[in-house]
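Try this one yourself first.
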């Protein structure tokens, strides 16, 4: 990974990366620039937070709509304190924020960090797609290569 904590990535929404030898899809629905400013410690916190099924579920619920910690706690067969700890891990990873409304803590999804996480995962996906394509090219028989050039 690039040692620099600041990377800018252009993400094309609605278009898939072309396969090796294929023409690029001219139908790009939306283009956005994501500043992937994540330090190595940020990336570690992000993957740690997403490694747990309950935290992924809490994040999904927060993305759908804001919820109080107590409303989230009612959905799981664990203590309120355990759910609070899961939310705290998500908060340390900056995937969610909490806002006090009276006696309740409302959990909000943090869109910019989620966009950075998606961009980071897209980078890893592209890395593995490129590697798989290179392996496929190495394993390609001479007859298959000749067929591509006819």
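Now uncover the answer:
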């Amino acid at each position: 990974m690039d040692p620099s904590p600041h990377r800018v990535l252009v993400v094309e929404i609605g278009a898939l990366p072309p396969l090796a030898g294929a023409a690029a899809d001219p139908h790009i629905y939306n283009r956005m620039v994501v500043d992937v400013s994540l330090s190595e410690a940020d990336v570690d916190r992000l993957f740690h937070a997403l490694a747990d099924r309950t935290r992924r579920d809490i994040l999904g619920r927060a993305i759908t709509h804001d919820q109080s910690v107590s409303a989230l706690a009612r959905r799981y067969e664990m203590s309120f304190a355990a759910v609070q700890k899961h939310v705290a891990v998500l908060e340390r990873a900056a995937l969610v924020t909490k806002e006090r409304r009276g006696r309740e803590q409302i959990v909000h999804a943090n869109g910019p960090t989620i966009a950075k996480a998606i961009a980071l995962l897209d980078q890893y996906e592209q890395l593995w797609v490129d590697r798989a394509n290179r392996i496929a090219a190495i394993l390609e028989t001479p007859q298959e290569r000749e067929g591509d050039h006819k």
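Discussion: Helices lie at 40-50, 53-64, 69-74, 80-92, 111-139, 142-149. The chain has one domain: 39-145.
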